[in-house]
């Protein structure tokens, strides 16, 4: 029982350290896992699976969607959306 307690403490401490990078591409699919090789199609899909500390890299293109986050980040672990490398990204939420 004591070992189970220590395992729980370790998992509780390590959980915030497991930030994930997600990728979105106009050639992606929301059924994908969101990896660089298998990106999501929409930013909305990425937002639906992200937790504090995660980063979403958006590849070149115009994304016509209204963005809504499911979770909030924190001051020390923000949820970040940014363009992939030097890609030009446009979000047209009003179209």
Describe, in plain words, how this protein is organized in 3D.
With 95 residues, the chain is an alpha/beta fold. 21% of the residues lie in helices and 19% in strands. It has helices spanning 2-14, 43-49; strands at 21-24, 55-58, 61-63, 80-83, 89-91. The model has no long low-confidence stretch (mean pLDDT 87).
SS-based class? alpha/beta
Rounded to the nearest angstrom, the distance between the terminal CA atoms is: 57 Å
Rounded Rg: 16 Å
Helicity, as a percent range? 10-25%
| Quaternary structure state of the chains depicted | single chain
Described by the principal axes of the CA atoms, the overall outline is globular
The averaged pLDDT comes out at 87
Largest sheet composition: 3 strands, parallel
Number of E-type strands: 5
Low-confidence stretches: none
Please, how many helices?
2
Per-chain topology:
Elements: H1 2-14, E1 21-24, H2 43-49, E2 55-58, E3 61-63, E4 80-83, E5 89-91
Short description:
With 95 residues, the protein is of the alpha/beta class. The chain has 2 helices and 5 strands, in the order H-E-H-E-E-E-E.
Question: What characteristics describe this protein?
Answer:
three-stranded parallel beta sheet, 19% strand, alpha/beta, 2 helices, two-stranded parallel sheet, 95 residues
